[in-house]
From TrEMBL:
Entry keyword annotation includes Mitochondrion: no
Domain of life: Bacteria
Gene3D superfamilies: Type I PLP-dependent aspartate aminotransferase-like (Major domain)
Residues modified as N6-(pyridoxal phosphate)lysine: K259
Sample GO molecular function, one term: pyridoxal phosphate binding
Species the sequence originates in: Lentzea alba
InterPro entries associated with the record: GrpII_AminoAcid_Decarb, PyrdxlP-dep_de-COase, PyrdxlP-dep_Trfase, PyrdxlP-dep_Trfase_major, Pyridoxal-P_BS
Keyword DNA damage: no
Protein name according to UniProt: Aspartate aminotransferase family protein
Keywords: Aminotransferase, Lyase, Pyridoxal phosphate, Transferase
Cofactor: pyridoxal 5'-phosphate
Family recorded in the similarity comment: Belongs to the group II decarboxylase family.
Pfam families to which the protein is assigned, alphabetical: Pyridoxal_deC (PF00282)
Amino acid sequence: MDLQHWLNEALANHEKWTADYGSYPPHSSLQVDPAVFGSALAELQDRLRDNYPFFHPRYAGQMLKPPHPAAVVGYLSAMLINPNNHALDGGPATAAMEREVVSGLAHMFGYGDEHLGHLTSSGTIANLEALFVARSLHPSRGVAYSSEAHYTHARMCGVLGIEGHPVPVDGRGRVDLDALEELLKTGKVGTVVVTPGTTALGAIEPVHLVLDIARRYDARVHVDAAYGGFFTLLAGTDLAPEPWEAIGSCDSVVVDPHKHGLQPYGCGAVLFRDPSVGRFYLHDSPYTYFTSDELHLGEISLECSRAGAAAAGLWLTLRLLPLTRDGLGEVLAAGRRAAVRWASIIGESAELELYQEPELDIVTYFPRTDPLTLSAVDAASHRVMEAGMNAPVDPVFLSVARASAPAFAARHPEVAADVDGARVLRSVLMKPESEDYLDTLHARVLSLL
């Protein structure tokens, strides 16, 4: 895709649109010396080189990758206008686009036409909103989440002043269902958070089973699918359908288009199955919401100003890569295929050991050391990561995840627990290019041992 061509098209169309309103002299306060601008821009470009190559498949560290060119063009096209999706008078076109993409996301998760939702600036804010509604519905009951859930839930419980209840996990890093039920029996929990795709291991928690248990104890279920949500597109083909199909019966769900939705940062989403929860957002503003009797997005959001450009970028992307298995789903499937194949290669390796079988596109593994102890594994994993990212020639970028001694013992009892835990290597293969680059990546990791 020729990004330069489409950026030029976007700029030209913007100029045509602005010309419809007539010319006017620019104010002198906004003028800058071209030479000074050129110098500052050169400095900026130089400073931006101090980044890791998120765009390249040699970067297999965190959940980072550049947005799709369509997202860039869509975002820029709207950014030049700078609409604010808080109220319809701040961005009527992008507000309509936001409703369209949110409706698409809702149907992807199995919600009906009657739902409530909007884009957010991040998954953190999206989860905050879901827990805000949870507190409003059950003000005297807390929130349960697995110990492998994202740290945002414990943090947001603190922000909201509600009790958070971490639940132990099983041998695959998923919420322990027996421990969850014992907690629910106490009556202390009003909402259970379930994560189909944990951010450390990519483990798919059993949404369908959690939902069944929670309903027995009159508890709501919130799905934190910030990372894993778009894998719903692979349900029934590449992935077992049950956890993903159950999301449509859960009370709320969060997904981050700025992860697997190919968007730039600043694009999360929260959706509620019951639109009546919008009553908890009610507020009055003396100077907005006057241009239309239609519900404004700011009336169902904790955030006020939000970039309409985020909606435009996502809208244009989904016009080209729709929410289907053969559309956006194939982008995710490529990364998952790479993860599954790398796990197989590691399983046959004499130098590396798979920590846990990947379920999505995260691979965890560690060097086989002599002696085979947690302290040796920890040191070796850290050394490989550091050596790869600091290599002056042919660098490779990995990350690490810390595993406790009990978690290690559940998966690898042969590793002596001489310390309380160890770091293991962790690679996120969320770029579809990782599928073709995998053999090169594996060989490079082996060379660092």
